[in-house]
Amino acid sequence: MRSYILESTKTIEMLRNFPQINAPYAHRIRDYFIASLTFFCVAISLVMDAGGSMEQQNFMGVIAWTFLAMLLFGENKEVRMQVIIAVGFATLGEHFASIYMGGYTYRFGNVPAYVPPGHGMVYLTAVALARSGLFLKYARGIAAFVVLVCGAWSIWGISGYPAQGDQVGAILFCVFLIYLFKGRSPMVYLAAFFITTWLELIGTAAGTWKWAAIEPVMGLSQGNPPSGVAAWYCLVDAVAIGGAAPLLNNMKRCRDWFKAEKSPKNVHQGEFPKN
């Protein structure tokens, strides 16, 4: 009995940030529209870019920024700030991991113009799916599916059967599990797995980019793509979620200070009293 209670306590602790079971959750068309649009745009853009020119990449970047801006109109300021942070952090990560480190390489050896806004749409999709009625209602079932599928993928990568091993993917899968059961936004991480797996499988299959067989830091084998690649996007999500509130608060303090400095009381403080 005692062991059963301990196991139950551990399970509750692991799932403390998951949504409640059998609670009523609303299905918003907007959430499913954002996800559907992003999944569709990812497939079309990555296949098109596989044989496109640099000019086409730049044009796709303009379209991606336009779509992202339109989607953000319906979001609150917290989500907008999260997307801005996600775009900035992910873009820096792209230049470091791809161009500087050579962990993966795009066709032209650059970071395509559509990638930064694409990260914004991917992050927004993860947020939209995470708050959708479908994910909230079936959170535990979706989590079990993701753990089993990604776990099997990771085991296959280190089994010795595939020509290109995937030790990095197995490590990233373990990191993903930590995010999922210890992080404060497990639903976002689950949603990130679906959209990032989708884009990675299409992008690598089409030849839009290719992951190095040996990662450049520790010399470990790396799949194309790594099985646990969603863990990198979880880091982006964690930075965006953690940084949005402090940044918004600091911006509010700056606005309040600026308004106080410009108020009539402060403007006339330096005037000499009249006799």
Explain this structure.
- There is one protein chain.
- The protein is mainly α and 275 residues long.
- It has one domain.
- The chain is 70% helix and 2% strand.
- The protein contains 11 helices and 2 strands; from the N terminus they run H-H-H-H-E-H-H-H-H-H-E-H-H.
- A two-stranded antiparallel ribbon has the order 1-2.
Write the topology of this structure.
Elements: H1 2-14, H2 29-49, H3 54-72, H4 77-100, E1 104-106, H5 115-131, H6 133-137, H7 139-157, H8 167-182, H9 186-206, E2 209-211, H10 230-262, H11 264-267
Antiparallel strand pairs: 1-2
Helix pairs in contact: 2-5, 2-9, 3-5, 4-5, 4-10, 5-9, 7-8, 7-9, 8-9, 8-10, 9-10
Short synopsis of the structure:
This protein has helices spanning 2-14, 29-49, 54-72, 77-100, 115-131, 133-137, 139-157, 167-182, 186-206, 230-262, 264-267, and strands at 104-106, 209-211.
